[in-house]
Structure formats: C-alpha cells, structure tokens
Fold these 4 entries.
Entry 1:
Amino acid sequence: MTIGFASGCLFAEKRSVGLTVHVRAVSPEACPALVLNADFRPLSYYPLSIWCWQDAIKAVFLDRVNIVSLYDLTVRSPSFEMRLPSVVSLKTYVKPSRFPAFTRFNVFLRDRFTCQYCGERDELTFDHVVPRSKGGLTSWENVVAACSCCNLKKGDLLPAAARMWPATMPFQPTVHDLHQNGRLFPPNYLHESWMDYLYWDSELEP
Ligand SMILES: [Zn+2]
C-alpha cells in the first residue's frame, strides 16, 4: 500500500524528540522505516525490522545508518528540516538471526494459518500438544495452531488419549521456512519503497 495524502490542509502538530512535525493528514506514527542490514537485506523478517520515525532519525544523526528512501513527509525543528526516511540501511553489518521470534503470528505462519488437527482456518487459537498441566512447555516444539473447537475437544489430554495428532509435529522453523509460507500470505501493509528490499533474495532460493 502507499501512504496517502489528503489534498486538504489538515495539519497536525506534534512535539517529539525536540522536533515539531507538520503533517498533512498522515501522522508520522504511520511512517515507520524499514531497516536493512549493510547488505541491503532486511535486518529481520519475522518480525520485519522496522523502526518508528524517532528511532530512524536518531540513528541517522548518530551516523549509524544511511538513508535509502524517503517518505513525502517532513519534520521540522527551528534549525533544520528533513523528510522522514522510509528505508534505512545499517552502516555496519550485523549477523542476522537464523531463527524467527517465537510469536503468535509466526506460529500461525509456520502452521499456515490452519488448525493442525482438522484443517479449519477460522477461529484459530493455540494448543499445547503436551498440555501444560502435564508439564508441556509453551515453545515452538509444543505449540500448534488449532481451531477453538479442536482445542476444546482435546482439552487436557495427551494426543494418544485424545486420539488427536497434529498434521505436522511442532518444530522450530527457520527464517527460510517462514519465507516459504509467507509467500502464501503476503503482508498487506508495506510501503511501496520497501518492496525492492523484500523477497527479492528469497525468489532465488530453490
Ligand atoms: Zn480444528
């Protein structure tokens, strides 16, 4: 999507980190910067590495990043003005993590937003394969996406007792695994200036 600007003269004024922001219709809060590593790949995919505009500007002034692309949105202080960066790249390469964060979204993405017991895609929730009451951990290896119906049915039982086994036993996915599934579920909030830096590397993977 692109950040849209209203044609009217709706100005918002906001003070933050000593800057006055004049915004037409769009708040700077809606303008995060995509953060690339020094090799111009996103620093992280899951979650996608984005910084709020204040952090992005701070990093620019600390000379830690290069500005790669800009929003059509300006922040002003008495002594300077600058357009908000939409994409920045680190000046120093950081070794990226091979493993995605253990988040709700990433568990659903690993399981392709599908109940691992019946294949349902609505009313998704989480199931501990080994119930917590039986010592099961909340971890990549023990949590699967499950619809609320299956969750209720399985209750506090072990898979053998419930006769319910996940279609795929839960595992710690790699970024690559989530990439594969992520192509099926493209994110719907991406500034157009980010597109050049997302997915281009994954396209080349076999
Ligand atoms: Zn189900």
Entry 2:
Amino acid sequence: MKTRITELLGIEHPIVQGGMHYVGFAELAAAVSNAGGLGIVTGLTQRTPELLAQEIARCRAMTDRPIGVNLTFLPIVSTPDYPGYIRAVVEGGVKIVETAGNNPQKWMPLLKEHGIKVIHKCTSVRHALKAQAIGCDAVSVDGFECGGHPGEDDVPNFILLPRAAEELRIPFIASGGMADGRSLVAALALGAEGINMGTRFIATQEAPVHPRIKQAIVEASELDTRLVLRPLRNTERVLNNAAVQRLLEKEKRLGDQIRFEDVIQEVAGVYPRVMQDGELDAGAFSCGMVVGLIHDIPTVRELVERIMAEAEALIRRRLPGLLG
Ligand SMILES: Cc1cc2nc3c(=O)[nH]c(=O)nc-3n(C[C@H](O)[C@H](O)[C@H](O)COP(=O)(O)O)c2cc1C
C-alpha cells in the first residue's frame, strides 16, 4: 500500500508505533520497522542523552530499516536536556522524529538543519495547522479515544480526522483507537494516510513489557479506561486500577483546590514499576479505549501482516461488493 506517509517515511506499510514511555525501547521499535512499519524509540524514557544514543545504537543493530525517535516536550519545571537529546538523534543517524506535548517550534531549525522529518502529534485541528505552519512534514492526529494525553477538547476521531482533512495540506496519520485492518481502512476513508498505534503494540510478543500487563490489556474491555488529571488540565486516559480509583476520589474530594503534589503518589515514577515489574496497581498508566479490541498477543510481524491483509480484503472485496 502506497500513501503519502509511506512515501514520506520510506516505509512499506502505513503503520506507525507511537512513542510510549517505558514501552518504546529498541526491541519494539526494531520489530515494528522490521515488519515494514515505523518503529519509534521513546526519547525521554532514556534518562540522559547518552543513554538515548546507546538505545538508538541498539535499535540500529536490530534493524536497517527507518526508525524514529519520540521527543515529548513536557510542560514541566525541570526541563530535560533537549539539545542533548536532539544531538543523540542526529549523531545516531535517525531521520524521523515524532514530537508531542508542547509546540516544537523552538527546535524546528535544529531538526530541519539535519534533514530530519518531523511528525508532530497533536489533538486538535488548530494545533495541527500550527504544526503545518512551522514546517512539520506530517502530523499524527490523536482523537479523544487515544491512550495517553487526549487534550481538553474531547473530539473523537470520527469528527477530528475529517476536520483535519478539510484543513491540512500536509499528510496526517490517524492516532487513537486504531487496532486492525478495519481501523486502517476507516482512517484512510476519513482522509488520513496511515495509522499510529500505541496500546495495540503493548500487547505484542516483542514489547519489553511484563506479561501481567499484556494479559491485563487482553482482558480489559472498552469500558475499562478512565480520564484522570482533568482538573489540572493535563488529562490522561489510563487503564482503571486501584491507584486510579484513589486518584479519582482525590479529584472529587479536592475539586478546584487540587494541586499536582496531591496526586504525585499515583503518577510519579509509576512506569518502570508497571511496565517492567508488572505491578498492575502501582499507579496510573496510559491506555486507550481500543483496549476493548485487543484479544491476543501476537508477534509484531503477525499483527502488521494481519492488519494489511484485513485492509486489503476490505478494500478489494467488501467495499467494491457494496456497489453491486
Ligand atoms: C503506555 C503508553 C505510554 C505513552 N507514552 C507516550 C509518550 O511518552 N510520549 C508520547 O508522545 N505519547 C505517548 N503515548 C501515546 C501514544 O504514542 C499514542 O499517541 C497513543 O497511544 C495512541 O492511542 P491508542 O493507544 O489508542 O493507540 C503513550 C501511550 C501509551 C498507551
């Protein structure tokens, strides 16, 4: 399948694995790229630029296909060493960066100077237009159903994607709620040029995540995510668990008075405990509503090939058949 995204990124299938804290290590990114998609190493999971450089080198040793690095620009007090992380990307020969969080404008000249293609992930048409205006090559449009940070507008992909198609010149990728060939064909119909998946890729053999978490994803339904941190205007969609229940209870009790310090116990330092140690209730961790469509733990290659085969069957057989 050829789309503007496969052409732009030099990949075989229009399937991207979004950056995921403590999931997007070299093993998963290389597996996705080797399967013909775009694998993305998550920059900030590596505590220093030196560690990111090592992780990129590890990924490069596992695949000779294009890979990307996610740089999440966080609205936090102690700013990470972004110039250092970008240096690791450049020196590691990585040519694709997925940016997320704050507007990447400040970093665009540096990224562009080194011929890096920038995909900015955002949750609204206005932010997508801004990304286009500052020279991003593509955007990932993250709908309300997505795992992680859906923003504060609450527009689901059935509206957000066609709205993006109405406004954007640059190609865009549908993100949030994508799981299978049906998602891919629907995303293409709505104007996207490919799909970005987070939650679906956690439940794969190669994801370096504790088996207990993969099993929890298989067992959860589409009713099992919750939105947390909304009162702090930092909404996150997470898998419901004991810590999330505690967090929501605090949000209810403290109302407008809530501060980040009140919830730190449920959110800080949670990811290694969840993803690596398999402590399901250690805290709030991102998970999309798409969890209701995940029923198995295939290899990444099986997953990608299944998506492409399902999409092809839909496009070649089911859809033309409707026209009689
Ligand atoms: C466990 C987890 C961690 C994530 N961490 C990040 C991150 O560090 N940076 C980022 O830009 N997006 C992050 N995301 C968002 C994904 O890249 C992707 O946009 C999102 O998962 C898409 O929605 P889906 O889960 O419905 O596929 C994370 C998502 C999950 C599920």
Entry 3:
Amino acid sequence: MNKLIVLLLFTIVCYSQTASQLGDFKYEDFETPQYCGTSCHTDFYQQWKQAMMSQAYTHHWDEIEYFKLAVPHAEKDKNVEEVKAGCNGCHSPIAYLAGDVPPPLPSANSRANESVSCDVCHTITGFAGDTPYNFNYIMKPGKVKNSTRKGEIQSPAHEIVKNEFLGTGDFCGICHNEKSPYGAWVKSTHLEWKEGPYYEQGVQCQDCHMTKGEMKSASMGATYKDTKLHLFHGAHDDWKVKGTIEVRIHPDIREVEPGEVVKLTAALFNQKTGHKFPTGSVEDRIVWLHVEAKDSNGKIYHLPVDKKGFDGEEYTIAADVLAYQDMGIALDDPNFKGVQRDAVPVGDRIFRKPYFDPQGRMTIQQWNTKSFGVDYRIGPKETKLETFTFNLPFDIAEGKVEVTAAVYYQKLITSVGEFLEVPKDEMETIKVGEHKTEFTVFY
Ligand code: HEC
Ligand code: HEC
Ligand code: HEC
Ligand code: HEC
C-alpha cells in the first residue's frame, strides 16, 4: 500500500517535472502581445516592442543565422539536427510548441514573429530538472497568468496566480543558458551570475534588466512603487553597454629620454554587469583594449599588449589569421578558407572565450561547438590588468606624450558580418570606456 502511494507520488512528481515539448500546443493556445498590450498593458507593450525580446525571431541577424547557417547545417549533419527545431525553443517558443519547424520566414508575418511574447513568459510555471537551460520551461497556457504580484485589482481578462519563481534569475536561465548538441555550455549568463558576487547578495537579473519604477502595470490597475519595467535592455542598447568597463591607465615614470622604456599599466574594472562581459552570444561578441601614444608632433604609436604567457593566450591577442571555416558546411563550400578571426588592430588585447568546432577550429556557430579555449572575459566586479612596454624611439618628439586606452565592443565580428551580409548596425563599434594619461620626453 505504502509502496503504491510512493509510486503514485513519484509519477506525479515526474510528470510535473517534464518540460513542455515540440508540438505540445497550438498557436491559438497563446494570446497575442497585441491583445495584452493594446488596451491594458500599454506601457509594458511599448517597452517590450523596443527590446530584443519582441524581435528574437525577426531581427536581421537572427533570421540570417537561423536560415542561412543553422537550418542547412542541421539538415546536413546528424550531430546537430536537433537545432532546426531547438533554436526556436527560445527565439519563438510558441512556434516551437506548435511544432512549426522551420517556421515561415519573418517576411510572411506569421505568429512565429511574436518571438518571446507576454504569454510565453507569463504562462511559464517552472522548469524541469535542477538547472534552467535549453528552454526546459514548464508551460501552462490558458486563463491563468503567473506573476510575482497578485494585485489588488482583479483583471477582467484573466486570472493571476502569484508565482515567486518569476522574480528569480532561474526564470531567465531557462533561455539564457544553452548547451550545444556536443554538451558544451555555449551560453551561460545565468551560471556566470550564480558564481558571481551579485547572486550572493540576492541581486536578481530583474534588478538590472527589469528595474522598478512607480507606475501602473495595467491602464485600469493600481499604481505601485515597484512596478517591474519591461526594458530588457542589453547588448543592443548602446547606453547599457557604455560604461560597463572603467579603464584607467598610468605610466611607471613621468619624465623620460628617447631610447628609454616606459611601462604603462591599464586597469579594467567591470562595474556594471551581473555576469561576465561579454556574455550571452559570446561566440559573436568581441571586446578589446586599444592603446596608443601620441607625441608632441602628433605622431601616433600603436602599442601592442604585453604577453602574460598563459595557455591559449594567442586567442586573446588580435592577429591576422583566418577562422570560422565551419560556416562552409551550411554554405556548401567544404574548402571554405574562413574570414579574419578578429578584424581589430593586430596586437590589441581581446577579452573573450573562444569556441571550437569538433575539428578544433574557432567557430561562431554555437551549436557546432565542442570545446572552448581560455575564458579571458571580465567577470562581475573583476579588475583585469594589462601592461604595455613602450620602447621610446630615438626620434620621438620632445615634449608631452599623450597615451589613450580605449575599450571597444562589437556585437558581431566585422569580417563575419560582412561575409554573411548582416546589416551594419550589428557590427557597429561601441566605445565602452576610455582614459588618457601622459608623460614627458626631454632631450
Ligand atoms: C521575458 C519574459 C517576459 C516577457 C516577454 C514579458 N514579461 Fe511581464 N513579467 C516578467 C517577469 C519575470 C515579471 C516579474 C518580475 C519581478 O517580479 O521581478 C513580470 C511582471 C509583469 C507584470 C506585473 C508587474 C508588477 O510589477 O506587478 C505584468 C502586468 C506583466 N509582466 C505583463 C506583461 C505584458 C503585458 C507583457 C507583454 C507586452 C509582458 N509582461 C512580457 C517576464 C516577462
Ligand atoms: C522564453 C525564453 C526567454 C526567457 C524566459 C528570458 N529571455 Fe531574455 N531573451 C531571450 C531571447 C531569445 C533573446 C534574444 C533576442 C535576440 O537578440 O535575438 C533575449 C534577449 C534578452 C536581452 C537583450 C539582449 C540584447 O542583446 O540586447 C536581455 C537583457 C534579456 N533577454 C534579459 C532577460 C531577463 C532578465 C530574463 C528574466 C527576467 C529573460 N531575459 C528571460 C529569451 C528569453
Ligand atoms: C548588476 C546588474 C546586472 C545583473 C544582476 C545582470 N545583468 Fe545582464 N547586463 C548588465 C549590463 C550592464 C549589461 C550590458 C553589458 C553587456 O552586454 O554585458 C548586461 C547585458 C546582458 C545581456 C546582453 C548580453 C549580450 O552580449 O548580448 C543579457 C542577455 C543579459 N544581460 C541577461 C542577464 C541575465 C539573464 C541575468 C541574470 C542571470 C543578468 N543579465 C544579470 C547588467 C546586469
Ligand atoms: C537556450 C535558449 C536558446 C537557444 C536554444 C538558442 N538561442 Fe539564440 N539566443 C538566445 C538568447 C537568450 C540570446 C541573447 C543573448 C545575448 O543577448 O547575448 C540569443 C542570441 C542569439 C543571436 C544573436 C542576436 C543578436 O542580434 O546579436 C543569434 C543570431 C541567435 N541567438 C541565433 C540562434 C540560433 C541560430 C539558434 C539555434 C542554432 C539559437 N540561437 C538557439 C537563446 C537561445
């Protein structure tokens, strides 16, 4: 008898822990964002419209990467066939749940375009297993919407159930952690946060990406002091990225003669992110430090970073080499030579984690990633130090030498973006931080 009850409980637990699967629902099981946002949640709707959440399926680079690389690759290579459906488990959950694989192109204006919609997030009740990743959400579409606040006023459109889970970083981890078909953690924003100082202090993802302000959460509802704004501002928001790294540089000596050596030290402090920088689509992103000196005649000297000597360091110093040959699989060009690996000034320090394909070549295809190189990104509240040795030439002009250290960021490596014809805004260079110092040359 007892055994039966245990068995029964076990079955219930197992059942309730199963993630929602491909084909479990229909598009019609979900409300459209227009329905939620036109007359009631007007502000949230407009905020969401401006965030990448509403464009996760339609955005140009997403469309190009999915249709030009991932789908053809999945059709040719059994090892990665799951991504043909799986990409949209996060980018267009309702298309995935409706079993629409691949969904129509964004230009067809189908419901797949709703991307990560209101009803996706608000019908998630939890996740299956111990770690949130790879869209292991448990979704219960219908009249009941999950929220961290029950509210004083009942909605005429739906019921609200209080679910504290939505207020935690684990909720975000469902889509912000990703394991490749080869078992590599190719997206780990949530895991990085969990290992870092913010999680320990109880700071959630929501505290920085859904900040609290005094406003109504619905046009006919009450005003709360801590209404959670639906900003989701991230890498596609220049002013979110700017200032992430505070860079400061100083020389070891202020007065020098030509032929002498000046050693410059740059300190890079990550003052803003709750995870590493860069995070998320780390395979596409590039952060680098450029240092140059200008003598009193205006002559510019580019200073390459000093090598530290750690394993795999060669991937963290910009070089004139080719990479990303595995794009050739999808593009039917098995002998594809690749494009420039970094496309930033040779000798600059790069803060990155290289992704390697099963053949050990660097890749931007996170689904084709089997291993990683050294993780040389900047952790939350971490300070990285870099040095530069400047052997002053004998003909350097007398007077002040101004040294500038600048940290730059690109969402997508230029060479890759140009090769795949991705619109320019995705490769735009953003200056994250800058600092200047000086020393004097005298004869
Ligand atoms: C990516 C997931 C996600 C999307 C998309 C999303 N929400 Fe939310 N929403 C949340 C989370 C998480 C919370 C609770 C945050 C917290 O408590 O820290 C929330 C809170 C709310 C609240 C309660 C706010 C409060 O302070 O009481 C309302 C209402 C709401 N969302 C409506 C919407 C509407 C309408 C849309 C579409 C325009 C939408 N949400 C899209 C995740 C999402
Ligand atoms: C159902 C999946 C899903 C959930 C849950 C989810 N996200 Fe996202 N999120 C995405 C996808 C997909 C994108 C990528 C959009 C793109 O660029 O294609 C994204 C984009 C973002 C961005 C913008 C990044 C940029 O490049 O500008 C931020 C910030 C973000 N999410 C934060 C959060 C936070 C915070 C939570 C939890 C409250 C959360 N997300 C929950 C799927 C999700
Ligand atoms: C202390 C504040 C803070 C916390 C906590 C935080 N973030 Fe961020 N996040 C930022 C800042 C600042 C940026 C912009 C710089 C960047 O792109 O990394 C950012 C960027 C992002 C991006 C865009 C990254 C990219 O390259 O496209 C995503 C996605 C994101 N955060 C998701 C999350 C998730 C999910 C969590 C929780 C697991 C979280 N963030 C916690 C501050 C924070
Ligand atoms: C586990 C959820 C998940 C899966 C599966 C997933 N993605 Fe994403 N994807 C995200 C999130 C979250 C972001 C945003 C991260 C960031 O801002 O850096 C993102 C970002 C991207 C971006 C960068 C968007 C930009 O504008 O910079 C592209 C392109 C992309 N994904 C394509 C794909 C493709 C193609 C697949 C399938 C091979 C895929 N994704 C699978 C969650 C996922």
Entry 4:
Amino acid sequence: MGLALRIPANDNAKKTFHRRGGDKNQRMASHLITGVAGFIGSSIARELVHRGERVRGIDNFETGKQENIASIRDRIEFVEADIRDHDGLKDAFAGIDYVFHQAALPSVPLSVGDPVRAHNININGTLNVLLAARDAKVKRVVYAASSSAYGETVTLPKREDMMPNPVSPYAVQKLTGELYMQCFSRVYGLETVSLRYFNVFGPHQDPGSPYSGVIAKFITQMLEGDSPTIFGDGETSRDFTYIDNAVQANLLAASAPAEAVSGQVFNIGVARQISLNQTFQALREITGFRGAAKYAPQRVGDVKHSLANIARAQKAFNYSPDVDFEEGLRRTVAWYKLRPHPTPAASTAI
Ligand SMILES: NC(=O)c1ccc[n+]([C@@H]2O[C@H](COP(=O)([O-])OP(=O)(O)OC[C@H]3O[C@@H](n4cnc5c(N)ncnc54)[C@H](O)[C@@H]3O)[C@@H](O)[C@H]2O)c1
C-alpha cells in the first residue's frame, strides 16, 4: 500500500493522494521536518525549498498552523502524523536522508500544568522519531534542543560543558531528548546533532496563545496599541536569536563532517544578553507604541538569565549569526504588520 500523503490545497481544504509503488524512488524527499507547520520547522522548510531541496514534513497541528506552510504547500510532501504514534511514522521516514526534529510541546508553562502530556510528546515522541530514523537508515538527525536545559547557572555565558540543571518539566524533557540523541549515535551509529536554541524569534511565531514567545506577543500587542505584560522586574534577560540564524545552524549542522558534530550538543544563540525592558524599549522605537509595559510576578519555571557561548558551533560548522537583534526585530515587526493578527492572550512566555 502506498504512503498516504495529505497536502493542504488551501487553508480550509485538504487533498489526499496515495503515492503509487512504481514511482516511489522518484518521489522520495531527502529532508524530513517534524513539526513542519510550526514556527521553526516551517522556516527550515521554506529555506530548503528555496534552495531547491526535496522536503517532506509531518505535523499534527498541535500548535502548528496550516498558514505556516501555505506558501510551500505545493512544493513539499505533507504527512499528517503524530510523533507519539510509533507505527504511523514508518512510511514518513522511508527514503529520508536528513531529519530536522522540531516537533514538541514547546512550552514551560504547559509542561508545568500537564507534565505527563508534555512528556509523552517531548520524550516518547522523540524516541519514536529516533527509532523511525534508525530503522529507515537516515543519515543524520538534527534535534531542536533547548537552552532551558541549563536552568539557572551561576556563570554566564552558558557553555555546553556546564552541568545541565533543568528547572521545569519542559527543560527535563528537552534534555532527555539530547541524551537519547547521543545514545543513538553511540549505540546504533545513527548520526545525531543537538542544537540548543536560545529564544528564537521571527516571522511565523505564534503570538496567539498564553504560552507564546515573548517577542511575538509584545509586537502584536504593541501594534494593537495594547501594553504588553512583563513577568518579573523586566531585568530577566535572554539571548534572543533571530530565526534565520537558527535555520542557518540547522542546515550547517546537517552537512558538517560527522566527526565534527555527531553525538554532540551545540549552543545556537547570538552571544548577546538582552533584558525584557530593553526589548520593550527597542520595540517602542520600531512600532511607535507610546504606552508603558505592565508588570506581573515572575513565573514558576522561567530562568532569570540566559546567554550563549557559541564558540563550539562556530568552530565545528562555521555557525555565524548573520542577523542581529535589532535587525531581527525590524524584520519581525514588518512581517506582523503585513499579516492579519488575532488578539493575543494576556500572558507571555519567554
Ligand atoms: N522557539 C524557541 O525559542 C525555541 C527555543 C528552544 C527550543 N525550541 C524547540 O524548537 C522546536 C520548534 O519550536 P517552535 O518554536 O517552532 O514551536 P511551534 O509550536 O511553532 O512548533 C512545534 C511544532 O510541532 C508540532 N507538534 C507538536 N506535537 C506534535 C506531535 N505529537 N506530532 C507531530 N507534530 C507535533 C506542532 O503542531 C508544531 O507545528 C521545539 O522542539 C522546541 O522545543 C524552540
């Protein structure tokens, strides 16, 4: 039986077709993106399509959106699948060379509220992805790890050789995924690379949930003339990383020599510490918003400071963040201005 591929014909309608056995090899995609309808997954997909590469994506629309892949929907294979469904992944991995594993429940507050559900997606789902990749003889899996694995560190910047100290279920889960990546590299010879993203932001990030990234939410609120809410005193800091830098890191990590990257963990940030107060001020300049921010108590599970040392990724695969914070903000504001945006929920994830 052929692989059932569901390709959305438009945002409201889906077309389902079955690949015939005869043309199987011709139609094989060489890159598989899990979580392709999400913010980072769809951004990787657009860049690969732009480069003329073959792309297959899977998603269950847990947090992802049809609109994120609308511009490339006729140039990728899309499989509606859940990474918790081990048996359902087999066909989607057939013929794949490189996997970019982005699918997750990517939220500290959601993992605090329902750690079991988050565990099932983030850990069990990741194990299923690795099993499917191993069985399909995939060349390499590049994994979306998280800087949250570090937790509160006494020393900044955070380096990969520091002891992880996760403070939320989400952080534990993302760290466990890294350990599984390393394990599959050692035990089964599957090449794996873990990229610890530091607060990625940019076009296509969803501002519409209470757990959305802080920049997406600030921008959409300020463009609506509403005051954003800052949790804590605003001196909480992050190494905000524009999406193009994260996409670049994924593609470089996929093509770097195995001896330089396989089984390893790399920070992906910009190596610059920006506070939430500074972010708000920068966005006031760009959006023209003249109001003040609202302040609310710091949330459980959020770390106070985050800053990446990116030397390891620079050395191993020439990672070099091209887009700085201010330029990234300008591009992101420009994108949100052009898109119709729903009114965001009140609270803000960082
Ligand atoms: N955005 C950041 O700043 C950041 C920072 C560190 C790590 N990460 C990691 O990067 C990855 C992508 O994050 P994002 O910001 O693009 O989030 P996102 O929510 O936009 O994307 C996640 C995607 O995974 C899909 N998904 C969730 N559960 C699934 C399941 N069971 N089966 C199939 N698909 C499923 C969602 O529908 C969504 O499309 C995640 O693994 C996240 O943990 C993100």
